[in-house]
Structures are given as structure tokens and as C-alpha cells.
């Protein structure tokens, strides 16, 4: 480039004008680039906000934490968090029991004991467990989740009894009565005592398909020593989270008609199970207080 001072005034003026135009063009380019950068950042921020809202919306639309249950109750699987089980009610039972002309008692709270026999026409839509026992399909998912969660703690729960037909319950009752007769009980006393230890056929919760007997793999005796096992300690503390209650708790024999059984769990649904657990009552007391039945 020629020396600035060797040029004529007009040439110097033109040179200054060219330099000014170049500087202005550079400034415009910088502003444009800065604007594009800011616009890009703004777009990214908007997309991030939209993504967060979409994810939150999806989370609200879904049921809270309901992993797919394992296929078999006695097969270890990944831990599951409690969740309300799916409702398979296509094969609806004689569902709701009538209280004293007031509210209807829902199917999951159907009361069966020595004073309240199995509802007439009750049927069970059976789902088979890995060991051959069956349960009502409407409590199957919750049972799977409870067993899987128990196993996730390193424990080994085993379902040793579940749904029973009238014939099976009759056989169990007869065996218990005969055992008492062999011990010297009179026929009448053996009948009465057998009814305290084993439900009279037609009055057993096992015939509902909503009850299961669960024991520890390493201790399968059905007596009060069962409560000392790690499996029972976990179940007594956590079963309500899955809609199950310890059906025949200690010191409730006069109300339930059955001796203390720290292995017998009954499905009543999460809401009722939570209330029964928190109130420390048995199913008979809960139904009487809530439904006046």
C-alpha cells in the first residue's frame, strides 16, 4: 500500500472512507455473529424447558413405579416398589357384601370367618404360581411385587398354601380333627378345637383365593416360632405396602375366631391395608368401624 502522506487529499479521504466502511462491516458481522449465538442459546434454553415439562407430564400420566412382576412367586426377580395391583375384574365375584342396609363392602374386604361363610356363588379366577398353588388374579400382581421386594432384601419367602377348594379345606379340617381325637379329645371338643386351628370348610379365607400362607425357606413350621424368622419380620412390617395384612394377629383370637397365625396374609388392597396396619386392628374390627357390619 502506498504511503498515506504521499497521496492527495482526495485519495486520503477515499482511503479513510474505505477503512471506515471495513470497520463498520466488521462491527456488523460481529453483531450478527453475537446475535446468532444468543439466539442459539435461547433456542437451547427453550428446548430444555419444554423437555423438562414433557418429562414431568409423562411422569404424572403414569402409575407410580409399577415394574412388570416376575412370572412366578417362588422365582427371585428384581425388586419392585409397591404399587397398586392391576384390577382383573372381568370374572367378577358376588363382589360387594351388604352391610346393615348402609354402605356396600367391596370385594377385597369380603369377610369370611366362622360367623360369615363364603358368599354364595363365589368363584375364583385362578392364576397359578410356580409351585402349583393358585390365587385370585386380582391379587396376583401385588403378591408378586411383595415377594420380589422381600427377596431383594436377601430373604427367602415361600408360599406354602394359597387358594383351596371346598374339598381341600374339608380334608385339612378332617385331618386336624383326627389328630385331636388321637390325642384324647372327645368328638365334640375335637370339632371345636379343630375349628379354632383350621377354619371349618366354607368359612376359610383360603377359599376366597385372596389369602396365602408364607413361610421362611429355612424355617417352615406353622407355629408361633415362625414370627421370629427374618421373612416374617419383614412381612409384618411391609406387607401392608402391597395391600396385604397379617390376618390373624396375636391377641385377636376372640374376634377373628382363629388362633394367632404369623404366616397367614390376606389381600385387602393398599388403602385398607395401610389403615388396618396403622390402627392396629384386625379385619373384623376394621369393617365394623368403617361399615357398621
Roughly what fraction of the amino acids lie in strands? Answer: 5-15%
Give, in spatial order, the strands making up the sheet with the most strands: 5-6-8-7
Largest sheet: 4 strands, antiparallel
Low-confidence stretches: 58-80, 83-95
Q: Got a strand count?
A: 8
Tell me the span between the first and last alpha carbons. Answer: 108 Å
Number of separate helices: 8
SSE ordering? HEEEEHEHHEHEHEHH
Radius of gyration: 35 Å
Shape: rod-shaped
Helix content: 40-55%
Overall pLDDT confidence? 83
Features:
293 residues; alpha+beta; four-stranded antiparallel sheet; two-stranded antiparallel ribbon; 8 strands; 44% helix; 10% strand
Characterization of this structure:
Helix content is 44%, strand content 10%. The chain has eight helices and eight strands; from the N terminus they run αββββαβααβαβαβαα. Helix 3 packs across helix 4. The strands form three sheets. The chain has a four-stranded antiparallel β-sheet with strand order 5-6-8-7. It is of the alpha+beta class.
SSE map:
Blueprint: H1 9-61, E1 97-98, E2 104-105, E3 126-128, E4 134-136, H2 137-152, E5 157-161, H3 166-182, H4 187-197, E6 211-216, H5 230-238, E7 244-246, H6 253-256, E8 264-267, H7 270-279, H8 283-291
Helix pairs in contact: 3-4
Q: Quick recap of the structure?
A:
By secondary structure, the protein is α+β, with helices and mostly antiparallel strands. It has helices spanning 9-61, 137-152, 166-182, 187-197, 230-238, 253-256, 270-279, 283-291, and strands spanning 97-98, 104-105, 126-128, 134-136, 157-161, 211-216, 244-246, 264-267.
Amino acid at each position: 500500500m502506498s504511503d498515506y502522506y504521499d497521496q492527495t487529499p482526495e485519495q486520503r479521504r477515499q482511503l479513510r472512507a474505505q477503512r471506515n466502511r471495513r470497520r463498520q462491516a466488521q462491527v456488523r458481522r460481529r453483531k450478527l455473529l453475537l446475535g446468532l449465538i444468543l439466539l442459539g442459546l435461547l433456542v437451547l434454553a427453550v428446548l430444555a424447558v419444554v423437555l423438562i415439562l414433557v418429562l414431568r407430564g409423562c411422569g404424572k400420566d403414569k402409575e407410580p413405579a409399577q415394574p412388570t412382576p416376575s412370572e412366578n412367586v417362588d422365582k427371585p426377580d428384581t425388586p419392585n416398589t409397591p404399587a397398586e395391583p392391576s384390577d382383573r375384574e372381568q370374572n367378577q365375584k358376588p363382589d360387594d357384601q351388604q352391610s346393615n342396609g348402609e354402605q356396600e363392602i367391596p370385594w377385597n374386604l369380603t369377610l369370611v370367618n366362622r360367623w360369615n361363610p363364603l358368599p354364595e356363588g363365589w368363584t375364583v379366577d385362578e392364576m397359578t404360581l410356580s409351585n402349583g398353588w393358585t390365587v385370585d388374579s386380582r391379587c396376583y400382581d401385588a403378591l408378586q411385587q411383595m415377594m420380589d421386594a422381600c427377596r431383594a432384601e436377601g430373604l427367602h419367602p415361600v408360599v406354602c398354601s394359597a387358594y383351596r377348594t371346598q374339598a381341600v379345606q374339608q380334608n385339612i379340617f378332617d385331618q386336624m380333627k383326627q389328630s385331636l381325637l388321637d390325642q384324647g379329645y372327645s368328638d365334640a371338643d375335637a370339632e371345636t378345637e379343630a375349628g379354632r386351628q383350621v377354619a371349618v370348610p366354607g368359612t376359610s379365607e383360603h377359599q376366597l383365593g385372596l389369602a396365602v400362607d408364607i413361610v421362611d425357606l429355612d424355617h417352615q413350621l406353622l407355629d408361633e416360632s415362625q414370627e421370629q424368622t427374618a421373612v416374617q419380620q419383614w412381612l409384618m412390617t411391609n406387607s401392608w405396602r402391597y395391600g396385604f395384612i397379617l390376618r390373624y394377629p396375636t391377641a385377636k383370637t376372640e374376634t377373628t375366631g382363629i388362633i394367632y397365625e404369623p404366616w397367614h396374609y390376606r389381600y385387602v388392597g393398599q388403602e385398607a391395608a395401610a389403615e388396618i396396619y396403622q390402627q392396629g386392628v384386625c379385619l373384623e374390627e376394621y369393617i365394623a368401624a368403617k361399615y357398621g357390619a
